[in-house]
Amino acid sequence: MTKPAMHEDLAQNIRLLCSYYKSIAEVCRRLDINRPQFNRYLSGQYKPSANTLRRLCEFFGVETHEILLPHTQFERLVQLRPQATLAEPVVNGSVAAHMEQLSRCSNPDIQRYLGYYFEYYLSMSTPGKLLRNLVCLEEQDGQIVFQRTERMRTNANEAPCHNRYQGIVHLLTDRLFLVDYETLNCHEVTQTILFPSFRNRVSKLTGLKMGVSDNSERMPCCARVVYEYLGKDIRLRKALAMCGLYEADSAEIDGSIREAVRNEMAPGETLFRARH
């Protein structure tokens, strides 16, 4: 005798969401889920773990409490929802389509990271120096964007110059991805990947940053980076005045930050890894 489905509503809801895709195989491939295991969810015999259920919801663009609704109620909800809110596959190669897909997949918890930060890392163009920049994450037209400002001084007798970078931010599963470009000369794109904050209050975020040195060598580099949260309202001029190059052991920089941006590798490590 066939065992009755214990999670039939959930199974029907997942099957409904899968119907917006070309095939079950495509869904499994994009979710990186084993097909036999996924079939168990579709049959209603097994309920996904909390982590897998969250991944499913992020992929399909629905909330966890929604996918657990009775099927008739969930079906009405999906039918009323604009088609663009479902995480459809990119069907053309346009940049806009890819960016829209990333936005749909981004975790809404990203809102808690909006505000100003000091960014710290060892300078890629001035060896032995530690660079402090100002970063602002904000929402514009439904997208999370950011501006990063470098305040550089060639020598003490000259006024500082400012390099500005603009980019986008996505919180994908449990990592923050920031990609930006230098706006004046458009000669550099950088990527920063940060661990999220697992505390109620955002304070410091750590990760890795990759870019090129801002000199004639233009050497591709990777460095550990720290984002120190300042708040949503700050004294902008004062914060910018604090940006610039510092000695790597400067007492003006918190000791825990100086330690966190050191770029040494532990014995036996074969990859340059972030520190959490």
Keywords summarizing the entry:
Cro/C1-type HTH DNA-binding domain-containing protein, DNA-binding, 9 strands, DNA binding, 434 Repressor (Amino-terminal Domain), Porin, Cro/C1-type_HTH, Lambda_DNA-bd_dom_sf
Short description:
By secondary structure, the chain is α+β, with helices and mostly antiparallel strands. The protein is 28% helix and 29% strand. The chain has helices at 8-18, 24-31, 35-43, 50-60, 64-67, 71-80, 95-105, 236-241, 255-260, and strands at residues 115-122, 129-140, 143-152, 161-172, 175-182, 189-194, 204-212, 220-231, 244-247.
Note down, in words, how this protein is organized:
It holds the Pfam family HTH_31. GO terms for molecular function: DNA binding. This protein has 276 residues and is an alpha+beta fold. It has two domains: 8-100, 434 Repressor (Amino-terminal Domain); 109-260, Porin, CATH 2.40.160. Helix content is 28%, strand content 29%. The chain has nine helices and nine strands. The protein has helices at 8-18, 24-31, 35-43, 50-60, 64-67, 71-80, 95-105, 236-241, 255-260, and strands at residues 115-122, 129-140, 143-152, 161-172, 175-182, 189-194, 204-212, 220-231, 244-247. The protein has an eight-stranded antiparallel beta barrel with strand order 1-2-3-4-5-6-7-8. The longest helix is centred in the N-terminal third of the chain and has 11 residues, at 8-18. The radius of gyration is 23 Å and the shape is elongated. The N and C termini lie far apart (51 Å). The model has no long low-confidence stretch (mean pLDDT 87).
